[in-house]
Amino acid sequence: MAFIDIVLQPPSYGWKNAEGELIKPKPGQIISEFFSRLNIFADKRNWLPFMSWMKVLCMVPFLYLFIFEYFTLWTLLAAFLYSMIIMGTHGTIWHHRYCTHGAYKFSNGFWRFFTQNLTVSMIPEEIYVISHHVHHAKSDQPGDPYNAQAGFLYCFLADVNHQPIAKDLSEKDYNRVKLLMRHTGVTANTYAQYQKWGSYINPGNALLSWVLNWGFWYAMFYLMGGHALACCLFGAAGFWAVGVRTFNYEGHGKGENVQREGIDFSTKDNSVNQLWPGIVAGEWHNNHHLFPKSARSGFKPHQVDLAWYYIKFMNSIGAVSSYKDFKKQFYLQYHLPYLQAKTKSEKPSVTVPASTVLQ
Prior knowledge:
The chain is mainly α. It has helices at 3-6, 27-37, 47-58, 60-68, 73-100, 109-116, 125-137, 152-156, 158-161, 171-181, 191-197, 203-243, 247-251, 275-281, 285-290, 306-316, 327-346, 354-358, and strands at residues 104-106, 320-323. It has one domain. Helix content is 58%, strand content 2%. It has a two-stranded antiparallel sheet. The protein starts with a helix and ends with a helix.
């Protein structure tokens, strides 16, 4: 089988039935799969998705303190900006455009590390990157780890149920995983370590990175605004980590084809350009599916792209050495031909009298 078909650990209910159709599990099946895959006592190789959700649970006390102890209009504004814009944009910059698609390159490891830790760490690179390659290869088809056609819960719990890498890869296939991840700077397990832990990253390294990142950012937020600001922004980071798990369901039309002519040009899948995710995180999703390796997805004048502005700025100061920008290709291949066809179809037709034709 092709690498893309086996790289992810299949759920117990499978990807597709004997006829090749998408299996749409019932909510009970999805929830049962979720908890079985978080069970580190049954299989210690479940540690990575377990740690990912532990990060979310660890944010609950911060969110509680923010709401019931430190809530003001100013902390509410700070939480909104941090969760909706800063965390969202960073996810697009780091996990999406760099780690997965390599849309730009850093000049050196310092700037890569700087960008990686620009916000409170919530999502493991490994879970996001490998599964996202599969998503693009099988978008809205059986095997897509967050196929919106299977429902909201299928997408929302996908990071545990569908996105972790398979635990039984051959050494050759595991080396292909390493090739997809090595530019991220995340240290890889050896094949023997992978067989023991079932992951690309070692749990010791993951735990150390978690502690150092959270420790640094709590200290910075505390120095800027005391426990009030620190609890506010950590709670906001947890809120974002839950909210981002809903994106692909919304970004693929909730399983329906709701694409709009002249707005969504990638018609091979159900991805759509949404105004809110576009403005706050540069996530113009249909544009991205047209040109996944582009460092810019906001091609039209109104399509604000904060992630692109960061990448462009980093390039201007020498931190980013190169990037790919497909704006011109978008206009030449899709937008201008659409406008020309629309203009042509709107021109009034000239009716030639039948007598003239017969002469």
